[in-house]
Amino acid sequence: MKALKIVAIAIVVFVGIVVAFESMIGYFQPTAGTTLVITTVDSDGTAHDRVVSRLTTDGRLYVAANHWPRAWYERALASPEVQVTLDGKQGDYTAVPVRGPEHDRVDAENGLGLGFRILTGFPPRYFLRLDPR
């Protein structure tokens, strides 16, 4: 019974760390030289901006849903015509879901460290290719 309590406490602490980390990322939306702003639109036409890491593979632009909160990703799937602000320049793009060998290649070339995976609670990773319109 004591071991079960220890495991339960460890799980609660881990979930708390993940929630705190994800909340801080969502609130502060850190920007750096390797980020872009993707603007998606929800079903009622409201635009939403999200700072995400930009990835480049084979000269193509990608973004990844690396976290459990991923409303921006779901909005991009539902309405793939998005706007992207990259290096201060805004452009129109089509968000294309990436699957199969392309997904595996982008994932292999843009791996995540174990520490980041732990802090985010090991969410599944999905990619969008951003094709200029």
Explain this structure to me?
With 133 residues, the protein is an alpha+beta fold. It has a single domain, classed as Pnp Oxidase, Chain A (Roll). It contains 4 helices and 6 strands. Strand 4 and strand 5 (89-98) form a beta hairpin. The longest helix has 27 residues, at 2-28. It is globular. The mean pLDDT is 87.
Notable characteristics:
6 strands, Pnp Oxidase, Chain A, 4 helices, 133 residues, alpha+beta, 6-stranded antiparallel barrel, globular
Question: Helices and strands in order, then pairings?
Answer:
Layout: H1 2-28, E1 35-41, E2 47-57, E3 60-65, H2 71-78, E4 81-86, E5 89-98, H3 100-109, H4 114-119, E6 126-132
Antiparallel strand pairs: 1-2, 1-4, 2-3, 3-6, 4-5, 5-6
Gist of the model:
The protein has 133 residues and is α+β, with helices and mostly antiparallel strands. It is 38% helix and 35% strand.
